[in-house]
Amino acid sequence: MSPETLARWQFGITTVYHWFFVPVTIALSLLVAVMQTIWFRSGEEKFLRLTKFFGKLFLINFAMGVVTGIVQEFQFGMNWSEYSRFVGDIFGAPLAFEALLAFFMESTFLGLWIFGWDKLPKKIHLATIWLAAIGTMLSAIFILAANSFMQNPVGATYTAATDRAEMTDFLALFTNPVFLATFPHTLAASYLTAGGFILAIAGYHLAKLNKADLTEQEVKDASAYRWATKFGAWVMIVAGVLVIGTGDFQGKIMYQVQPMKMAAAEALWESAGGDGTSAPFSILTIGSLDGTRPVFEIQVPFVLGMLAKGDPFARIEGINNLQEKYTEALASGQFNLRIDGQTNALQKAYAEKLKAIGIDDFTPNIPVSYWTFRIMMGLGFLGMAIGLYTLWVLRKGGKPRDTKLWRALMFAAVLSPLFANSFGWIFTEMGRQPWIVAGVMPTVNGVSPGVTGVEVILSMSLFTLIYGALAVVEVWLMAKYAKAGLPDVAEPSIKGEDEVLSFAY
Q1: What is the pLDDT of residue 175?
Q2: Partner residues linked to 298 by β-bridges
Q3: Considering the entire predicted model, what is its pTM?
Q4: Which long-range CB contacts under 8 A does 112-117 form with residues at least 24 apart?
Q5: Is 362 a member of any domain?
Q6: Residue 379 CA to chain centroid, in angstroms?
Q7: What's the count of helices (H) and strands (E) in the chain, helices before strands?
């Protein structure tokens, strides 16, 4: 395998592994803040127990996210130095803000939240978890702004003298149409995942308490778990609706700036729609052995036009048509990915250099793009369905039974949106290929020139071993504390000024 392929595999593996923890961190921080706020206002013990219970699980997840996220930073210098050299002036700015502002903010206030239960006034302590939650969202903003630049490179131009892309407008990164679509979609997907996380754990314990002759303590536990189960289900449903709405918006932006990604997602080889006809949405497409044409299709009319342009009769460009169009544009030195003919300063300035570089195939991996898109949607809808089914089971005081089916649904409640997120990002990145910066820098040109395949294999093997060990620790800790259930708590009280701080040792 080439160093490029190995470098892509390494980055993909480490990124997907890291992203297992990110959506839970983003959303669970605020949901824990909501639980603590309810306790602060109501004084009910169950909300304090829920806060500390899910707060501990959140901290385990946060720690794992930090450890795996550090590796991502190393990747840009290890395997992707040419990419970093070319766009470091733009790409590095939001990453720096993420580390210096967002991560510092969330880690600082999380520390105050962890150790401040008996040392800070209730209002101030409550504020710390809210500020930590805001920090996680700021982190998402900066990271997604950086990624959105790769999808639609705005706010920059190309300087031939330095052979580098240089920033011209920092704020343009945050008004990038791709960012404006991606951020709310990612946020909604994160809450779908975190809602499933709460539902799964609380629903598991609630079913265990569906028995006769409950003790007084078990009655209290059941009340808390019931509230948390319904809370998680409602979060999943509301977030799921928002995922659909923001996903529709994101799809339209995607077709504008990367029409080939939309065509690959549908395995649409020839243009369809227009002149009173509709472009169908593919439910199932099986391609030929050479991957150039469909041999079997199950389609739904009118849908694709609505997804791409909001018009059921819109003409949607196919893979073969776009390949021909891009080949001609590259030869003319006026290369442009966008479907509407518009371009940005960086793509325009780099067109002649791109012509000299040359590129023959503008098509991403069609099977990967097609199936990851459908798996993402299918798992997302499954999560919403579990949320709806849970509310139906709990209606009018109903209780779930501790059956194999219920346990399977609880596992699916957390795993389906979690893997939907991962497959969504695989589609996002694989569908952009062959570009590392869309319409500007081919992925092959971003790889570190001095890195050999052997070096990448060795580092990838080491990462795999480390990540495998971390996975075992993560699963063990999550299982241990999730199965332990709600903790016994005492009303927090501020200790005297002269009392020794226990964590000082």
Answers
A1: 93
A2: 284
A3: 0.90
A4: 113/55, 114/59, 115/503, 117/492
A5: no
A6: 14
A7: 16, 6
